Amino acid sequence: MWIPTEHEKYGVVLASFRGTVQHGLPLEIGDTVQLLEKCEGWYRGFVHKNPNAKGIFPCTYIHLKNAHIKNKGQFETVIPTEDSVITEMTSTLRDWGAMWKRLYVVKSVQHTHKNEGDLFHRLWHVMNEILDLRRQVLVGHLTNDRMKDVKQHITARLDWGNEQLSLDLVPRREFSMVDPDEISVTELFKLMEHRHRKKETPVPASTHHLFVHMKSLMSSNLGEELEVFFHIYDGRENRPLSERFFVRLNKNGVPKSPEKTERQCTLFVDLGSSDLRKDVYIVVHIMRIGRMGAGEKKNLCSIQYRRPFGCAVVSIADLLTADSKDDHLLKVYACTTESEWYQIHENIIRKVNSRYNLSGSNTGLAVSLQLLHGDIEQLRREYMVLFTRGVSITKKLGFSDIIMPGEMRNDLYMTLEKGEFEKGGKSVARNVEITVYVLDIEGQVMKSYVAAGSGEPGGDEYHSFVLYHNNSPRWAEQIKLPIPVDMFRGAHVRFEFRHCSTKDKGEKKLFGYSFVHLMQEDGRTLPDGTHELIIHKCEENANLQDSSRYLKLPFSKANLPGNNQAVKGTKESFWITSFLCSTKLTQNGDMLDLLKWRAHPEKINDSLSKLKEIDGSEIVKFLQDTLDTLFGILDESSQRYGLKVFDCLVHIINLLQDSKFQHFKPVMDTYIESHFAGALSYRDLIKVLKWYVDRIVDAEHQDHIQQVLKATEYIFKYIIQSRRLFALATGGQSEEEFRCCIHELFMSIRFFLSQENKITSPVTQTQAVFLRTFPAVYGELLKIFTVREVAGFVRETLGSLPATAHAECPLEAVKLHCIAKTVESQLYTNPESRCILLPVVLRLLQAHMQEQRDLVMCARILTSMLSLIRKDDSVTTDPVVSEEVDLIVDSLLVVLMRTILEITNRPQPAGTNMRLQFQDITGEFVACLLALLRQMSDKHYQQLLQTFTSKDDLRDFLLQIFTVFRILIRPEMFPKDWTVMRLVTNNVIITTVLYLSDALRKNFLNEKFDYKVWDSYFYLSVIFINQPCLQLESFSPSKRKRVLEKYGDMRVMMGCEIFSMWQNLGEHKLNFIPAMIGPFLEVTLVPQPDLRNVMIPIFHDMMDWEQRRSGNFKQVEAKLIDKLDSLMSEGKGDETYRELFNSILLKKIERETWRESGISLIATVTRLMERLLDYRDCMKLGEVDGKKIGCTVSLLNFYKTELNKEEMYIRYIHKLYELHLKAQNYTEASYTLLLYDELLEWSDRPLREFLNYPMQSEWQRKEYLHLTIVQNFDRGKCWENGIILCRELADQYESYYDYRNLSKMRMMEASLYDKIMDQQRLEPEFFRVGFYGKKFPFFLRNKEFVCRGHDYERLEAFQQRMLNEFPHAIAMQHVNQPDQTIYQAEAQYLQIYAVSPIPESQDVLQRDGVPDNIKSFYKVNHIWRFRYDRPFHKGTKDKENEFKSLWVERTTLTLVQSLPGISRWFEVEKRELVEVSPLENAIEVIENKNLQLRTLIAQCQSRQMQNINPLTMCLNGVIDAAVNGGLARYQEAFFVKDYIVNHPEDGEKIGRLRELMFEQAHILEYGLAVHEKFVPQDMRPLHKKLVDQFHVMKSSLGIQEFPAYVRASPVHFTNGSPRSSCRNSVPNIISPDGARVVARRSPLTYPAVNRYSSSSLSSQASNEVSNITGQSESSDEVFNMQPSPSTSSLSSNHSASPNVTSSAPSSARGSPQLQDKHKHSRENSCLSSRERPVSAIYPNPLDPAQRATPHQIGDTTLPRSDPNLSAPDKVRTTFSSRSLDSVKEVNNTQFSDTVGKLLCPPVPPRPPYSGSSAKTMRSQSPLPTSRSPQKSSLPPFTPSPTECQSAGLVSNSPVLSGSYSSGISSMSRCSVSEASGTEATTGDHPAHQGPTMPNSVSSGSDELIRRENKTPPPYSVYERSNPRRPVPLPHSLSIPPSVDPPALPPKPHQLRTSSMKLVPTSDPRRADGVPHVPRPRPLPRKVSQL
Question: How far apart are alpha carbons 114 and 1069 in whole angstroms?
């Protein structure tokens, strides 16, 4: 049975539990669980991270912990009763754990991100460290101090980790987290700021220490022991700053005692900040211990001397930059002359190179140096290892900057400076050594009190170093004598001088001594400074043991009696410098006189006067003694010395204010509390203080009085303590008298404070001095007086201050400072005194804040005041607190808000410090406002609102508070990691808003409606909901849970409030439509379901009201669409939102009358959301460019076609352009930018600044766009398109006579032509891609596209790329259309196969003489249609001859746009499926092969081929296959009687097949003839074999000779015989070029897929050679290369189909000789279609007679001749090839090919130029024909890529149609009607007269419907001029209305338009007689000044 748990409430999971049992709850190790029930070894409960999932788990898996239960029962919460630091640690480590794992992933994925990797490892170490510290705390064996240290470590590391991971700053008090609800907001702010400051700017330490570790000395010439001395030296003052640190080294140069670290490491302590400068150095002196000469040989002498070795120097400034312990190798220098040794370090510092040199090139001193900061106690904590291991302390000479009480020090430093010695009868100078001893009062040598420095223990004696042969040696050697204070009296130091002989045994002979007393008889010590000592001579064996014998002798020359001239006159002297650093002994006689005042009463007056001159450090040494002395004198002679003692006391008190001695204040406090005994002193002190105060107003000099007032605090301390002692001693006598004295004193004070003076008056300054010290007195007064009494004193004193305040008066600031101290004092914390003081404080504060003065101090006071009112104080129950809040609200709320507004609107100051201070006060005022608002109850709000008497005041207040709240919500208000503070702020804001919204409803609705207040309210609510710190979804689960538990979801609360307020508005809602649509939309995009459910219905309401007002809701729609784009691109919104928006609004409008239009709007917005979401997903970092581009195209089209939002459309054009540039799709980038270009005209209309475009005219912008597009076309090798734009620009330049730019443009155009001819271009492959399944983005889902591959990209590479772009997609292994299951699948399926392009520009492809590099462009550009063939067998398969049943399923895909365009892929708009019969297939195969043969033969003849191999291989393939049964199989299949009988309808086709076979044989014969001409010698045998095989082939075909129609040169027939002789079932429809036969499914419908160059034959070609003619054993193999699932999953396109063709047949090379009357000038060949009377050129479809009559041909090509042709052949006609793939089949019939050849009629001559329209007309060819002769047998004229031989080019090539004379008319918008593009006009020139022919149209009705219904944007340059849609006349060509001639001559372009005529144009893809219907296309609106 399950029993509720009583005490077992909380536990931690010890091991993971899978929860596989029924109702089992899975647990992970470390989870915390709450236990609800228990039953037989099982618990039931939940995991804290997911409280909703409850289940059971075994008891053994849980470790129970003690916990505290709140709200016991159903909704109980359990809080573990453990240390709060432990709780925080646990939850923080959990949060870090998840983030740490993410860091690992980032580190693994992005190897480049070093920071993440570093953070990963650092965090790992810190987490381990925290876990270790946590264990120590949990064990509980730590001492209190250690526990404190551990907790400090823990919190420091937690804060570090939180900062590194950008988590929140945690407010703490003494290591524990603070609950923001339990302290006031001002306190919370202070805590946060304190932690933030700590994090931001560590306070620079004032004390520094230098750690030195001596490692070794490296030198080649060692061998003796060394002594190394370190000290810090001031180079500016040339004196040492510290004592010396001494290390002994052995003969190898390493420390002698390596195990004793304190002997090699030291800490130079107590360096001040002033010591860390460039001219402070670490100086190292090195002594060797050994023989006198360094190189002396070893002799019997065993005596060793200390001799100079070297010196090293390093500046402390070098260490300031290095934080870590750095190893330094110091160069060691030696003296040039030994006598300079004493100043070698100074010479090195000053770089006096002549006096020192390197002691050896490889000598170096290895030391480790590190600067440490902070006081020594802090170092002990931080560098524990250092101190536990042992480190010697090297002290500073003298006291540190701050003297600490209790510091014991008694160090005497002596420096052996120099000596002057006589030769002593020697011929050379002496080698002098000094031995130093310290002797006590009894003459005994004091043991261990002579130290060479720290590091080594002191010795009994000290030996100086020896200078060789020097009678005036200078040592400058410092020693330390740490003699105890009690042994100082009577002690002396003796110096013995010995000569060290280098001869004999090297003895040291004593020859003299000196001594000095350490203390004088009067108790003063040896004064600091240099002393010249007398050298007393003595013999070597003199007995100095008995010191009494020489102590009576004089020791110093300075204090010799005047008669002792003999000693004074001696030359021999010895100088020392002494320096005492003692906390107990003094060298000052005046100090001693004062302390011994009882012994010399007569000196009291003198001593008191001299006290002020004594050094402060001497006074603080004897502070207690001095104070005792002063109060002793006061007690005994108060009348006589009272004033002087008072002054001395003031001097001492003020001395302790100095920073150097401030730490002695506690010493004085202790003295007052424990040692002070002056029970009667208070009377004298009060009397003297009052006397001084009374004299203030009249005194001239205020300095001394100000000194007295500065000491007020301590004077009162003495007064109060004295009175307490007196009361204690007397039982409280004279109480009234004392109170009376104090009252009188305060009256005097109030009188002097009430004086109004000039600002500069000394009295004002004195008042300021008193006010600064006054608050310190309160605490003392409280010891005797009651709280209310003291509060009365303070109120009256502060109230006596003069009220009139000058802003610049310094007293004002001091007043405020005094108020601040008062508020912070103990007095103010008491509620009794607070109610007395509050009015005074508020009055002063209000005055300052209203004038915006001293705001920093005002903030401080307010903060202190409000910190006292806790949130947990019951404001409602405690009337005192409630009244307090009332007072503050009344006085300060409005002024506080105004202050915040003014501060935040001020420009921020420039200086960093000022800016920080500025931010501080803003934050403090904000915290104060929040604290105040949080304290306000319902009653307070009511009272507040009642204070506003008029509506205007209330309105101003509401506007002000809403504005302030908006400021508080700003992200920059608090640092980004202050989430705790932000949440508190938001909680206060929402509470206040709920109170105020009531006032808004009551006072500002209906007739009193005020738009501004309501608008401000809504605006605040919206930004409140949208602020980042409330977006709980972005928080970690634990943080989200904490916030929800404490505050709930404040967004939902505010959303409900918005909805409620909106509903109250009624008809006033119209004021907020459409203004509030954007803000409300932003709110609904917040991913909070409840909030969305509340807010989305508001849109329905808006639509309803807008419908009522204006009958539609266009405004709502426009605003929604505009805002959606910007908001969703910021990352807001999601798929759920789209569905919710759709469903809620559809449900809401179900019953509305305007339901239909509402549904339409919702559908539009939903579709836009789909696209925007796709766009956003695709734009994510790491997404592939292809997906981004496709998505942008989809969105761009949506804005253009469905929403007609021009500005958005243009923005996305530029986004797409940027994407293309990034992906290096330069052609696509050009097409994209062209979309914007087409929206502009060549006009002078000014355009505003937009995107990156400056303010400029429309003409300038269009020019810039043209140039950019040309540049990109150039980079994308799409030069043909660039040429068109160059021409258009050139026309513009020419019309403005801008010949400089015109010249550049023509040169650019020329360079593009050169590039076409000279540079190689790769032909891309095309791939069809189907995206099936619901998992694809909306713009791809269940659609098929054709994609233009990258250079060199084949099918396998493309397929891999697509699978990389869509890693979750599955590649389909077949090419069949998928069924519905695939379409609806929740997956991604990709179907990819290669397709062949069907070129539009057949004219160029079929023309002879056009170079391949021109043709290659037209094969793969401007392609609308693509084809894919799939072979299959129908019926029974004949194993003998498979050709009989081999059908082809041909799929033709038509795109919505031609490729290339604004994207590399476009969607398939239409699929057409046709089955090709075996016979038709055979015809196509042979046609294609014939075409290929012709091309190769022509190339060979024109010597375009570098070698003949391709032709050889092709001939070999065809002949060999034919011999082995290739063509014979076709004969067997189709020429047999059975087939002809069974298929009577195929008679014509069989005839056509026969013709083609004959034609092939004839071509082969001709090809062999050409081959023979060019074949190299080594290939002759192969050629002979081919000829033999060819005869066999002919005989197998039964050909003896060729029919007549085949005899002409086979290479040159185009549409003549034999192809046109047999298709006669349907009359031909003549295309507008009048020279081409149009037929369905000719070989030309096949794209030119030959990928081989002119020099070699590709593998594909060879495949075709072998496969096409059926050489393989099984005819199935013919189709092996066809893409099909059997060969590979998705086989490549370049493995071409068997019926692949190369290019259109070439035009016949021959031309008839023309009659003279039809010959024209050379220019005629360059006329454009618009210059020729098209209607006159083409008659209607011809009758047979016309076919037989040869027509004259226009002189578009010169007469051509071919030496290989007979004369009759040369008269064969030439036509332009017509693109047969651009027409559709009509009723599945074939066109007859027997129509006679049409000839081009003559072209009328070009009219001479006379400023008329002709000037703007472009030549079709850039060069006249006669300038390009060719000396080969080929035709001499090679057309340019944009030229045509007849008028037909313009009408069938979309590049040029309808636009040559106008400069591509469709590229610019103009005001001429659309019809103008199709009107036929009659030219003015007589040659233009002629009958008019109706527009010839092409294509079946299905084609027409497609053209009519689809309205794609003008993506292609070719489409710009394509007559499929009518084109308005460009502005430059429009005919101006007849107006009076202008005063000035017109611009050239005005002249040029006068006689412009338009010629009807026709669609090359329409030839079926259906009249041309213009395509409906929404013209974009004008670019609204973009």
Answer: 56
Query: Sign of torsion, CA 1244 1245 1249 1252?
Result: negative
Residue 1772: both structure tokens together = 């064969």
> Which residues make Cβ contacts (< 8 Å) with residue 388, sequence separation at least 6?
none
Distance CA 1401, CA 1418 (A): 6
Q: Edge-to-edge strands of the sheet including 474-481?
A: 474-481, 410-420, 573-582, 529-534
Encoded amino acid at 1983, one letter: V
Relative to beta strand 225-234, strand 245-249 is antiparallel
Q: Are 740 and 746 in contact (CB under 8 A)?
A: no
Residue with tokens 């190369």: 1702
Tell me if 438 sits within 8 A of 448, measured CB to CB: no
The half-sphere exposure of 802 on its side-chain side, counting CA atoms within 13 A, is 18
In terms of Cα–Cα distance, which of 1709, 1706, 1651, 1645 is closest to 1493? Answer: 1706
Peptide bond into 1733 cis (omega under 30): no
Assigned token pair, 959: 């506007």
Q: Pick from 82-86, 535-539, 1641-1645, 1750-1754 the range whose average pLDDT is largest.
A: 535-539
Report the relative pairing of strands 265-272 and 392-394 from DSSP bridges.
parallel
Q: What pLDDT does 1399 receive?
A: 92
Instruction: Kindly state the tokens that stand for 1576.
Output: 């190299």
d(CA 1322, CA 1354): 12
Region of 213 on the Ramachandran plot (φ > 0 left; ψ -120 to 50 alpha; else beta): beta
Report helix, strand or coil for 1673.
coil
Residue among 1035, 1031, 1023, 1024 nearest 166 (CA): 1035
Question: What b-and-e string marks burial along 1196-1221, b requiring 16 or more CB atoms within 10 Å of the CB?
Answer: bbbbbeebebbebbbbbbbbbbebbb
Q: What is the pLDDT of residue 1755?
A: 39
CB within 8 Å of 1883: residues ≥ 6 apart = 1733, 1889, 1957
Instruction: Please state whether beta strands 1389-1398 and 1370-1371 pair in parallel, antiparallel, or not at all (unpaired).
Output: parallel
Residues in the chain: 1986
Task: Please give the model's pTM, rounded to 2 decimal places.
Answer: 0.62
Neighbouring residues of 912: CB distance < 8 A, sequence distance ≥ 6: none
**Residues 1706, 1594 contacting (CB under 8 angstroms):** no
CB atoms within 10 A of CB 1076: 22
Query: What pLDDT digit, counting tens, does each position of 984-1015 carry?
Result: 999 999 999 999 998 898 888 888 888 999 99
pLDDT (tens digit per residue) in 1573-1612: 889 999 999 999 999 989 888 887 776 655 544 444 444 4
CA distance 1365 to 1526: 45
Question: Can you tell me whether residue 1196 is helix, strand or coil?
Answer: helix
**DSSP-based three-state secondary structure for 90:** helix
Pairing of strands 573-582, 410-420: antiparallel
Residue of 723, 729, 736 whose CA lies nearest to 784: 723
CB atoms within 10 A of CB 1580: 11
Instruction: Answer yes or no: are the C-beta atoms of 645 and 608 closer than 8 Å.
Output: yes
Among 1352, 1350, 1269, residue whose Cα is nearest residue 1312: 1269
Amino acid (one-letter) located at 1064? N
Q: What is the largest CA-CA distance in the chain?
A: 167
890: region left, alpha or beta (phi > 0 left; psi from -120 to 50 alpha): alpha
Picking from 32, 79, 70, 67, the residue whose alpha carbon sits closest to that of residue 51 is: 32
CA distance 1063 to 1523: 93
Comparing C-alpha atoms, which of 1857, 1727, 1879, 1738 is closest to residue 1804? Answer: 1727
Phi, psi of 298 (to 5 degrees): -70, 130
The angle at the Cα of 1012, spanning 1087 to 852, to the nearest 5 degrees, equals 100
Sign of CA dihedral 1296, 1301, 1304, 1308: negative
Residue 1862, CA distances (Å) to 1119, 1230, 1631 in order? 40, 21, 24
